[in-house]
Amino acid sequence: MSAYGVDQRHHTLTVLVENKPGVLARVAGLFARRGYNIFSLAVAPTDDPRFSRITIVVDVESAPLDQIIKQLDKLIPVVSITELAPSAARERELLLVTVEVSPETRGQVIQLVGVFEGKIVDVGHDRLTVMLAGAPTKVDDFEDLIRSYGIMDLQRSGRVALPKLDRTDDRSRANAKVLGFAKTTEKAG
Amino acid sequence: MDPKELTGAQALIKSLEMQQVEVMFGLPGGAILPVYDPIIDSSIRHILVRHEQGAGHMGQGYAQATGRPGVAIVTSGPGATNIVTPLADAYMDSTPLVVITGQVATSSIGSDAFQESDTTGITMGITKHNWLITDANDIPRVVAEAFHVATTGRPGPVLIDMPKDVAQTKMNWYWPEPSDLDLPGYHPVTVGDPELVRQAAELLLAAERPVIYAGGGILKARASEGLRELSERTGIPVVTTLMARGSFPDSHPLCLGMPGMHGNYTAVTSMQRSDLLIALGSRFDDRVTGRVGDFAPEAKVIHVDIDPAEHHKVRHAEVAIVGDCRLVIDQLLSALDGLGLPHSDATRSGPGGTPADAVPGAPAVAGTPAASFPRERVDPWRATLSQWQQRYPLVYAQTDAPGELKPQFVLETLRDSTPEDTIVASGVGQHQMFASQWWKFDYPNTWINSGGLGTMGFAVPASIGAKVGRPNRTVWAVDGDGCFQMTAQELVTASSERIPVKIALLNNAYLGMVRQWQEMFYGERYSEVYLSPDLPDYVGWAEAMGCVGIRVETPEEVGPAIDKANSIDDRPVVVDFRTDTSEKVYPMVAAGDSNDNILVDPSQVGGDR
Asked: A166 in a domain, yes or no?
């Protein structure tokens, strides 16, 4: 059973931060010292080199989401925080897994990868490395099914997410709740 | 050298001058050496401390007394780690403090070099923000950003870590415009949401047992005048927390004094019975609320705080307003105007004189029936409060028995023998609570203490910083013998710099507050709390540090000793008051207990409440 099962406890925050040394430590340190649990975390630069985006899946059992967001917002390098409820987000995750295969199971594994639209990225005599990108639940399902063949190595990337697009207005990010508080530029000054 | 070309060190000192820094507290060492050279030529006074912790607390004392940021400068490694406590203290009490630390050269960072410590890492969780400068060209901008962050929004400590090679590198001098600051994620909200202000005003007019719960934010926002007007116009009484003592005059008839673990009965119980708490710059600290589930059970809450993270953190607020207390109080007063609340006899004065102009976005609600706000409606409540005040005043009994000089008697005598605007600094423990209870604070920024962190040893250096910032005021430190031994060496600093602070040492030969808990909650099993009244010899120690030392053992000696201390203005004075060992601080709410179970002085037990 995947740990991703209890989805209501998990909220995704996409946090736009200044791309400066130590910013990830500030974010991680805040979670540690205030006792907030991070479920997964992914960080990468954005198209604007001044900023990075951190996608954090938080466990709201450990603290009220409101507190987590407000404390995060107090960090000076945090520019904005967007909370993505599971229903309002396009979430994706990447999985790399090396599976043991015998002559009998090799075909089954390849078939399963095909069903899930994954990709075989490396082939050995008795093992295959598979890549799968998709919604976290799909990745969960695949991981569950592939397990019986014998997982030798597995790495998931952690979630990344963007808000769902509102088809009535493509430019809109109406589904995403932008929690800028003090950080939204309109209120600046 | 091009006239505009400076070393990083020169640029740092010049940047501090540009910030109108008049004094800094510090102690040099290897990594900060280059920065100490231009200090010789600077207009900034440098006060050489004897321990880096002293530099930090002096900066805090300076800041709390003046409202301007304190500045401390120390070297890398042990210099930096020694100032960690003041940073944590300033963070808890939202004190603007700018600390500059030396750092090993950038090429050595991460190599376990001599006197290297990961200063930005260590202080990350106890500063509002910190910076490691890696390019000398960043220095003016970072200094400007650091002062901006320290003094705006919810104030707090910041730290600038300055590697030695950066201080020695040449840069082209500039001074940044406000728009040059690189703080895309920092825009504190100061003006309250008008709709929320309107809701708050309506709640305020509907309340029957309201209490204003004033916290340290009133002082940070310089909102004392507005607070007074709000209270007077509405007739709502005010409690002032440990961090807010002096923000509303103790001598004012609407002042109920300090709430909390050692608050007076009326202040504590007024909040418990209240139907509306108006929390202004206060944060529902555990020392105020007691057991949170039992705190003020019938009260709705209006919570004004510049830090949105304080809202709903401990107690849900019906109306939570993000903003600066001074501005929001002005908005609230305008909203009350709009609701037809008549002005009090005391007309509006001071900077709030033109409320309509001063408060953008203030709601205009005209002609609502709430106009008949009855200050009279609060009268029965105030009558109840008066009854409690009469029934449960703060009490103590000074006797003639030897060895029973009461600390409260010392404080009352001291209070009555010093100017009204005397600044009082204190350490942490029984003496702190006695001082807060028995002093009469009638002026803002006259009470300087370590509230949130509870740092023993705060008083001596904080009083020195306060005296430096307010040289024309009388400054007394009220200290305990346990606290005094932690930072007393800074009196050497005070003597050599001719900073005439006065120390009232309440010497009960014990770690008194711990002793009190062991007596009350550990069956009188006293574990490691005895200190001895005469080891060290405090008078001899004071004299060795260049101070005048006076010993007081009987009540008759108290007044003359204080008069003598007050007459000395060319050096520090230490008065060693040998106080009653067994005196306890009352009232008391036991840690984790409900405020309803407040323990009053044993002489007041029994009878109806």
From this structure: no
A100 in the same domain as A79: no
When scoring A17, A54, A74 by the number of chain B Cβ atoms within 10 A, the one with the most, hence best to mutate, is: A74
By annotation, the residues of B acting in catalysis are 52, 114-115, 164, 513
Full-model pTM: 0.91
CATH of the domain at A144: 3.30.70.1150
Q: What is the pLDDT of residues B183-193, one digit of tens each?
A: 999 999 999 99
Both A16 and A31 in one domain: the answer is: yes
Least confident of A8-17, B51-60, B264-273, B514-523: A8-17
Determine, for residues A182 and B189 on separate chains, whether the beta-carbon distance falls below 8 Å.
yes
- Looking at the fold, whether A141 and A180 belong to one and the same domain comes out as no
Q: Which residue does chain A place closest to B154, by CA atoms?
A: A74
pLDDT tens sequence across A98-125: 999 999 999 999 999 999 999 999 999 9
Answer whether B181 touches A (CB < 8 Å): no
Q: Which residue has the higher pLDDT, B561 or B402?
A: B561
DSSP letter, residue A166: P
In chain A, which ranges are continuous DSSP H helix?
23-34, 65-74, 106-115, 136-146
Residue A24 domain-assigned (yes or no): yes
Tens digits of residue pLDDT in B264-319: 999 999 999 999 999 999 999 999 999 999 999 999 999 999 999 999 999 999 99
Split at pLDDT 50, 70, 90, the class of A162 is confident
**Integer Rg of chain A from CA:** 19
CB-CB contact of B412 with B464 (8 Å): no
d(CA B455, CA B458): 6
> A17 and A68 share a domain?
yes
Residues A14 and A61 in one domain: yes
Judge whether A165 lies within some domain: no
What is the ipTM for the molecules in this complex? 0.88
Tell me the residue range of the domain where A65 lies: 3-84+171-187
Nearest CB neighbour to A29, from listed B125, B189, B313: B125
Nearest alpha carbon to residue B487 among B543, B445, B540, B426: B426
CATH number of the domain enclosing A78: 3.30.70.260
Same domain, yes or no: A181 and A149: no
Which residues in B lie closer than 8 A to residue A78 (C-beta atoms)?
A: 185
Q: Nearest C-alpha of chain A: how many angstroms from B327?
A: 15
- The alpha carbon of residue A38 is apart from the nearest alpha carbon of chain B, in Å, by 18
Cβ proximity of B69 and B469 under 8 Å: no
Distance CA B593, CA B297 (A): 14
Contacts of B185 in chain A (CB under 8 A): 17-18, 75-80, 183
Q: Find, among B268, B238, B270, the residue nearest to B251 by Cα.
A: B238
Pair (A67, A95) in one structural domain: no
Give the C-alpha separation, B112 to B131, whole Å. 20
**Cross-chain residue pair A73–B153, CB shorter than 8 Å:** no
Q: In chain B, what are the domains?
A: 5-180 (3.40.50.970), 194-390 (3.40.50.1220), 407-586 (3.40.50.970)
List pLDDT tens digits, range B319-344: 999 999 999 999 999 999 988 887 76
Cβ contact B371:B359 at 8 Å = no
C-alpha span between B304 and B420 (Å, rounded): 30
> Chain A: nearest CA to B239, how far in angstroms?
27
* Tally of domains within chain A: 2
Contact B59, B71 (CB under 8 A): yes
In a domain, A154, yes or no: yes
- Per-residue model confidence (pLDDT) at position B130: 98
- A-interface mutation test, from B124, B141, B159, most A Cβ less than 10 A away: B124
Let me know whether A69 and A109 are in one domain.
Answer: no
Measured in angstroms, the CA of A162 and the nearest CA of chain B are apart by 20
